[in-house]
Amino acid sequence: MPIFVIVIFSVALLLRVLYQKYRIRQQIQWRNYRKMAVQLLSISAIYIVFLFPWTILYTAYSAGLPSSIGADYYSVSSYLSYFVVMLTPFVCVMSLPELRKKCTNILLFQYRPTRVVHPETLTVTRLNPPRALSIMPNAQ
């Protein structure tokens, strides 16, 4: 049930925003809603891909399907259901274009700042004239 609720309400939120723009006769500028659309649809896709098969098998087993049918796939899909929790933060982060570019540069080792060494001349000027040092013998 939670899978259907998450997917349906994510798509409903996107459709609600689009309908409001249509209702007040404003043009839909996709660059303003791209982040939201990508994030909602990506999270919905993760839930459908990883949890939907497991949910269907679980429902079928509850309805009376023999447990020998699809038992191997059921155990694998129940293991894959944990990936939803692990992948959701990455989907949210990857919807940010600046951070996505930095992450891909770091992961692919493309971020190599060029360090150029230039010669530099230093001029030293004294503010005070040199003083003569006098060493006093130890008084005993």
TrEMBL record:
The keyword Membrane applies. InterPro entries: GPCR_Rhodpsn_7TM. Its main location: membrane. Keywords: Membrane, Transmembrane, Transmembrane helix. One of its GO terms (cellular component) is membrane. Residues 1-92 form the G-protein coupled receptors family 1 profile domain. The chain crosses the membrane at residues 6-24, 36-56, 76-96. It is found in: Membrane. This is G-protein coupled receptors family 1 profile domain-containing protein. It comes from Adineta steineri. The lineage of its organism: Eukaryota, Metazoa, Spiralia, Gnathifera, Rotifera.
